Amino acid sequence: MAITFEELFDAEFLESLKHLRVVAKRVPAGGRFAEQRSRDMGSGLEFRDYRPYSSGDDLRAVDWNIYRRLGRVFIRLFEELEDLPLYILPDVSKSSFLEEEPRVRAGLRAALALASISLGQHDTVGVFPFSDDLSVLLRPQSGKGRLMTYARRLAELEPGGATNISSSLHRFGGMQLRPGLCVIISDFFDPAGIDVAIAAMKKLRHRLLLVQLVKPTDRDPDVSGDLRLRDCETGAVEDVSVTGAVLDSYRAAYDGFETSLTAFARSRNAGLLRLDTNASVVPQLATLFESGHYSV
């Protein structure tokens, strides 16, 4: 089932995000003027350093006080303020739309919240939903007035196919977008396994924030006895006798999955938020901004 506009967009939800900001230590060069510190040196407002004068430099940047004292010509360097591109990749695979409380609802609310924050500080935001492949829902753009457009487009998303993180990220990486912050919102359950998903994420040149959509039953499923299990995406059927030993083996596998994802995030210095899809999204997102902002 699709997620309605009313489920995603409500004034109280967005109002609670006003004081949260995504702050980059340095953004890649080549963007628009905005609120993030760039690697570029230019004619911004915040002084950073000096360097010796070179032929062709703007004489208005020369520090004549230093010249009078030392007889040497230096120019003043200022930080340029630019935008931090934000690329949001929500998982819309078929399985994410199932369950009594579908994971996709929390995932799209998180996507809209992060878009709201970045649009509010003049950053560019693009949305690229994925399942068995990746598509372009909204190309990177900026402007506070575009938030309603983002909400409507997110609400229009329909269930996709089976999960294929590797193929989806390969296509995303091939777009050659300006380096920015890539937010992947998913349960990261891929038929190919977590190692294949991690290998695909390693190839991305963007900084990463992983929002893992979880439920308490992921690790501790409430099942027992003889069951016929059907894969919700492929339709494959498997008969299983759920015993204590089988559950212990399953939990060990799940713990290994979690450990691998955590280790990758640490090795990449990426953010990792485990978002309980049965709970309110805002308080959980707020843990990323304990100091009032999320620094990348």
Could you name the key traits of this structure?
296 residues, alpha/beta, Rossmann fold, six-stranded mixed β-sheet, three-stranded antiparallel β-sheet, 13 strands
Q: Overview of this structure, please?
A:
The protein has 296 residues and is of the alpha/beta class. It has two domains: 5-24 and 84-295, 3-Layer(aba) Sandwich (Rossmann fold); 33-82, no CATH class. The chain contains nine helices and 13 strands. It has a six-stranded mixed beta sheet, sandwiched between helices. A three-stranded antiparallel beta sheet has the order 2-4-3, covered by helices on one side. A two-stranded parallel ribbon has the order 1-13. Strand 8 (181-186), helix 7 (194-202) and strand 9 (207-214) form a beta-alpha-beta unit. Helix 4 (103-120) packs antiparallel against helix 5 (147-155) and helix 6 runs parallel beside helix 7. The model is unreliable at 23-45 (pLDDT under 50).
Count of distinct structural domains: 2
Q: How many β-strand runs?
A: 13
Largest sheet: 6 strands, mixed
What is the number of helices? Answer: 9
Highest-level CATH class of the largest domain: Alpha Beta
Low-confidence stretches: 23-45
Can you say what the CATH homologous superfamily of the largest domain is? von Willebrand factor, type A domain
**Approximate shape:** elongated
Query: Could you estimate the helical fraction of the residues in percent?
Result: 25-40%
How would you classify the helix and strand content by structural class?
alpha/beta
Q: Tell me the Rg in angstroms.
A: 23 Å
N-to-C terminal Cα separation, in Å? 35 Å
> Biggest sheet, strands in spatial order?
7-6-5-8-9-12
